[in-house]
Amino acid sequence: MLFKYFYDTALAHASYMVGCQRTGEAIIIDAGRNIEQYLDAAKKEGMKIIGVADTHIHADYVSGAREMADRIGAKLHVSDEGPAEWKYEYAKEYDHQLLKDGDTFSAGNVQFQVLHTPGHTPESISFLLTDFGGGADRPMGIFTGDFVFVGSIGRPDLLEEAAGIMGTAEPGARDLFKSIEKFNALPDHLQVWPAHGAGSACGKGLGSIPSSTVGYEKLFNPALQYKDEQAFVNYILAEQPEAPKYFALMKHVNRVGPEILGEPKLPAKINTDKLGNIIATEMVVDTAVAKKFAAAHVEDTINIQPKYVAMWGGSLLDYDKPVYLISSVKDLSEVVRILHKIGMDNIGGYFDADEVAEAGLNTESILQVSPEELAKKVSLGEVELIDIRGINERNKMAPAESKYSFLGLMFQNTEQFKANKAYAFCCRTGGRSVIAASIAQKFGAKNAMNMDGGLVAWELARLPLAAKATPSAG
């Protein structure tokens, strides 16, 4: 049996290639939109990809299932569980198998058996893997998708939190509790292969280890320790991270079918003499690292460096309007790949960062201020300090006298920024807060500052902390 693991750090997304080496056939589990990685691996291993299987309708990235079905004729294996509104509408266009609990599909002598595990989503399924070609007569592991993670479990509130389908969080949590009972009945020796790792917003407290075992998770996964259903419901619905705004769109895209990208290509390069006119009417994102952007950037551009594009690009940018990039040649292909993976296909073009720097355009900066100096300014009323982290982060530790305004909602609250006031922004280490400062500048608060080193530096300096979260800035 062939088993290959793929991990996309930008979205903490894991996908898998499983194949039968005797027949040269393979299936991809929870494919990402960049299918070239699977095609290249299959070619290297001498395998033919005959199928692609999704554990559920993903919310955090565009699935590569349709891309593979369309471009290489891979058979779709997708869930037919759950209510009518959560069916794969595009599957009928291709060779496909709609899966119910207990169904099987194969790649040569390798078999996958479906286990319906609702809770994270109603249609969620897991796949038990058995290598009959290797002489086994029982499963060796389970692909859990967003059901069971290493050290955590999929959140049941996304349909309500991100997709706006009210009244689904608690029923989802109760479904999840029943699915855990199925999981706990599985043999301890089974390996567990989830679709996400640490950093994903699909659950809380995900581990960074790529795989585990059923037995280990039974012992140490906090979500699997509850015997009382109501206690579990209370636990799983509490302190979940904010769901990125684009999750609702991803649910729709993956249900009706994403656009076919074809082979990777970069957006058109635009001459720098057109940058000013485009900034006046469109969104221009400079992908420089935070400190470089803070030192000098073209007026009215916003900053989202490559490592934040997935989370904050999807939450802040308007999917109905084109986005333009200022990027180095080195970073461009990765930034475009991530934007495509979160379904942002309307990229109007890009400006070469080196050419922009040499063009002599009007620039502005974001002052980097040490926590000690900032604490003095705040105490004297010279600046308003705004914490832009998630509410769970803030409730654990926040700077004294700071206000709160979540970064993911900042474009919906730009009226809070006044031209005659000075603002400083803080996050954990000082990266996300530069995004916030750039948005404040774009909307008129030109005296924008950033806490250098973030809350980590504030705490190391032993500066005062707030007892609890304070109201939003305004």
- Extended strand count: 25
Rounded radius of gyration (Å)? 24 Å
In DSSP terms (H or I, runs of 4 or more residues), the helix count works out at 16
Into how many domains do the coordinates divide?
3
Strand content: 15-25%
Mind summarizing the main beta sheet?
6 strands, mixed
Low-confidence stretches: 470-474
Q: Give the strand order, joined by hyphens, for the main sheet.
A: 1-2-3-4-5-6
Which outline best applies? globular
CATH class term of the largest domain = Alpha Beta
According to CATH, what is the topology of the largest domain?
Answer: Metallo-beta-lactamase, Chain A
What share of the residues lie within helices? 25-40%
Distance between the termini: 59 Å
Structure in words:
Helix content is 29%, strand content 22%. The protein is an alpha/beta fold and 474 residues long. The chain has three domains: 2-256, Ribonuclease Z/Hydroxyacylglutathione hydrolase-like (Metallo-beta-lactamase, Chain A); 272-362, Rhodanese-like domain (Oxidized Rhodanese, domain 1, 3-Layer(aba) Sandwich), CATH 3.40.250.10; 367-460, Rhodanese-like domain (Oxidized Rhodanese, domain 1, 3-Layer(aba) Sandwich), CATH 3.40.250. A six-stranded mixed beta sheet has the order 1-2-3-4-5-6, covered by helices on one side. A six-stranded mixed beta sheet has the order 7-8-9-10-13-14. α4 (169-184) packs across α6 and α10 (309-316) packs across α11 (329-341). The termini are far apart.
